Amino acid sequence: MPTADCDPEEARRRLEEAGVSVEEGNTEYERWRASRGGANAVAYDDKVVVQGARPTDLLALLRKSGGRAHVYFDGASRGNPGPAAVGWAIVNSDGIVGEGSETIGETTNNRAEYEALIRGLEAAAEFGFEEVDVRGDSELIVKQVRGEYDANNPELRERRVRVRELLERFDRWTLEHVPREINDRADSLANEALDHA
Questions:
Q1: Is residue 94 pLDDT above 90, yes or no?
Q2: CA–CA gap between residue 127 and residue 62 (Å, rounded)
Q3: Where does the pLDDT of residue 36 fall: very low under 50, low under 70, confident under 90, or very high at 90 and above?
Q4: Contact call for residues 91 and 70 (beta carbons, < 8 A)
Q5: Region annotation Disordered: residue ranges (predicted)?
Q6: Which domains are seen in the chain, by residue range?
Q7: What is the pTM (predicted TM-score) of this model?
Q8: 85 touches 197 (CB < 8 A)
Q9: By CB atoms within 10 Å of each CB, which of 15, 119, 128, 144 scores lowest?
Q10: In a 3-state reduction of DSSP, which class is residue 14?
Q11: How far is CA 45 from the centre of its chain?
């Protein structure tokens, strides 16, 4: 079981600031308990133990803010437009610290790519990263956000503005196009969401 290296009261404050509900412990040894997504945290006198299917849902919030992470994103649409989903993963020197996927209704592949990018950036900001290196396998989206291509579609223009607003939250950021093999985790998450819809 992963143990967060932080003061239990400081950890409680971080969780509450992130909107996580914290409850009193179930035994005389537990100071408090919290749950989010697929993770549960239990605080003792000198440590916080995180368990569950996806401990990263809480571990990233418990660690000290700041630092740098890679954000991988991918959107998928079957039919273009058709049923669509997004996937994203946040990776730092500790490994995957956060990931997510979900279906987003019927839309085009490009809109799904933008939604995946937005969700990944929102999560990275929520986790408190100061610097992000963003990677995706959609050359169109990367070049539109960087200003190398125009976004003629009004819906894509709106999403590009939202992405730029999110990027400005970070002290430093980069955005690069990468081959699908390098973006494999985000791609798999998006496709798994569609497969199980």
A1: no
A2: 9
A3: confident
A4: yes
A5: 1-26
A6: 3-62 (3.30.310.10), 68-195 (3.30.420.10)
A7: 0.78
A8: yes
A9: 128
A10: helix
A11: 30
CA atoms within 13 A on the CB side of 140: 13
Q: How far apart are CA 144 and CA 151, in angstroms?
A: 6
Single-letter amino acid, residue 147: G
Q: Taking the CA of residue 14 as centre, how many other CA atoms within 13 Å lie in the half-sphere pointing to its CB?
A: 21
* Tokens standing for residue 197: 């819809």
Place of tokens 């610097």: 131
What values do phi and psi take at 163, rounded to 5? -60, -45
Q: Taking the C-alpha atoms of 164, 168, 173 and 175 in order, what is their torsion angle to the nearest 10 degrees?
A: 0
Q: How high is the pLDDT of residue 113?
A: 98
Supply 16's token pair. 């509450």
Report which residue type is found at 48. Answer: V
Residue type, 74: D
- pLDDT tier for residue 146 given thresholds of 50, 70 and 90: very high
The 3-class SS string of 61-125 reads HHCCCCCEEEEEEEEEECCCCEEEEEEEEEEECCEEEEEEEEEEEEECHHHHHHHHHHHHHHHHH
User: Residue 140 is encoded by which pair of tokens?
Assistant: 């169109």
